[in-house]
Amino acid sequence: MRRWNADTSFSLGRVGAPSAHFVFYEDLTTRPEAVLPPLLAALGLPWEKDVLDRYGDASRGLVTAEESWKKGVSSGIRPSGTSGRALTADEREAARRGLRTELYEGIRRRTGETAPRGGA
Q: What is the pLDDT of residue 113?
C-alpha cells in the first residue's frame, strides 16, 4: 500500500508534463480500441487495428520462466480474472483503509478521466 500510495502521488505530480501520458488499467482492459490509438500517437506510432490481434504473439517473448504469474498475458488484453481472489476479504479491507484513493481520483480528474469505465 505504501508503494502504491507513493507511486500514485508521484504520478499525480506528473499530470500535465509534456512527456507524461496516462493509461488507466481498467480503461485499457475494457476499451483497448479507444485507449491504444492516442497512446500510440503519443509515441509516434501508427494505430493498426491488428495490434490487438498481434498482442499475444508479441507479449509471449516478454515472459520469463520466473514470471509464472504472467502466464495468461499472451491471450490478449482483458480485465484480470483474479482481482477478487488475490486477497482475502480482510486483506482487501485493510488495503481499502490504507490506500490513498484520492490520489488516484485526482489523476483521473486532472487527466479528464473522471470515473473508471467498465466497472473495474
A: 79
